[in-house]
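User: Some background: our group keeps a shared notebook of sequences we're curious about, and every so often someone picks one and asks for a predicted structure to add to the entry. Today it's my turn. The entry only has the sequence so far, pasted here. Could you supply the structure so I can complete it?
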Amino acid sequence: MERREQDSALEAILFALGEPVEEERLAQALACTPQEVREACQALARRYETEQAGLRLLRMESRWQMVSAPQYGEVIQTLLARGKP
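Assistant: Of course. Here's the predicted structure to add to the notebook entry:
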């Protein structure tokens, strides 16, 4: 798998799972090393922040999770408070 494709797959996995995922588990899925996963996640996290995206990538020990950017918390809370139509 090429680097760009690997990065996109990483992003898709983290989005789909919606929960913290171990670097080792990501490495197995992407057929690479945990170090390569860590570096790819760090680069993706920097990109989200630099581009002021609505997403962030958080590292918790050896796990990574995709989350909403904190500045959009109030907007998200407003939507959730309204419930379903």
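Suggested note for the entry: The chain has a mean pLDDT of 94. The longest strand covers residues 55-60.
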